[in-house]
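Table S2 (continued). Query chain:
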Amino acid sequence: MSIAASRRSVDGVARFARALGVAAGLAAAHTASAQDLGIKAPAQTGLTAVVGATVHPVSGPAIENGAVWFVDGVITGVGSADDYSQFLARVKLATPPTTIDATGRHVWPGLIAPFSQLGLTEIQAVVATNDTGETGDLTPEVRAVSAVNPDSTLIPVTRSNGVLLAAVYPRGGTIAGQVSVIRLEGWTNDDMTVLGSAGLSVRWPNTRPISAWWMDRSDEDQMRDIRQGQRAIKDAFDAAEAYARAKAGDPNHPTDLRWEAMRSVFPGFGADLQPVVSDGAVNGDPAVKPRGPLPLFIAANDVDQINAAVTFASERGMRCVLVGGQDAPRCADLLRKHDVPVVLMGTHRMPRRADAAYDEPYTLPRVLHEAGLRFTIANNDDTAHERNLPYAAAMAVAHGLPHDEAVRCLTLTAAQILGIADRYGSIETGKSATIIVTTGSPLEVTTAIEWAFIDGRLIDLTNKHTRLYDKYRERYRQTGDLKEP
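Corresponding output:
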């Protein structure tokens, strides 16, 4: 190579390196700008009471002129305002209580997003801010909460609309990893963790070829992939069950992290019988309780997928939760028989089939309710829009689902499906003080969230959106284009 050619080659490498540096700098700038700079809420001190509101426990009837009072993040009383006054007369407090006059307002349990990627993705167009899955098709050892960014700007935006808890799912392979449940407040991942593992995320393969216009593969090729996918799931669970048996028989058996992560979904074998410390106990003390077999969160929509997935789990004695479930009404008997709950993936979407009714997604929650199936409703939109979760349920209310059932879907039923109903999902004595105080129904667009508490911590409801609102309102005030009332 000539000296001139060598110089050109070196110059080209230098330009490429500079381009990489600029790209990395832009990605870093995007990432840095996507960090919430708010201060996290301190732990509750003393007694706090919300008095005068209509209290909606969800687990029971509404209480007019009610009161909820709590200490150390745990609800110690729910009743009328008179009940609270009598409580104060009976006890001696070291410090005066913090009392919120909520006359004319409503108190609800904090809403729960049953499916999300909150904290795992920030700006979809910037790869560096997306961490939703691991490389590989079988990664059961992955825990979604490990990758959650506590300073995501999307978290304050979401909780400002009443969503205070969320299930975070890994995505990617056939067995993508462990579903985690987080509270939308905390300095670190550990602070946010409610359950490091609520169950195992499984994507069930198609059971028949796709004949859509965009599919360019033959039926034979598709069926070969379908058989391989089904075989991969069966082989993985066979290997994991064999490992669980071996580990139960010999605790000194060599540990395999992949199969160890799947032990908790099999009944017996000791893994589900041992007492474990649940993550993030609300009172600050480790809450020790027996672990039951954790469910499989199986993504399936087609009737054949649902039948195959539920049959697979039931034959092995495993619990499962159906994620998607668009054809769930066609499998209602099977789902009732095995008590399989459904996480519906939103209502703001198109009908599944060309000959389906235009309002099929809107009426599906009502159909499941009338069929006696347990279900919750996810938003199923971009993570940046997770704040719109209440309106996915509101669309179902507009098409026949009772309002109280819709609220229950996003609170107590979601908590039961995720395995956290012992602490969250309803307003009851002994449960976490994770509540919202609103001007009306949380499903209404016009409702404002005026106060929010997560485990008794008073949450700052400002966020990037409210700060931008204040910024540009001030601009127009300065220019004289905004007339103050």
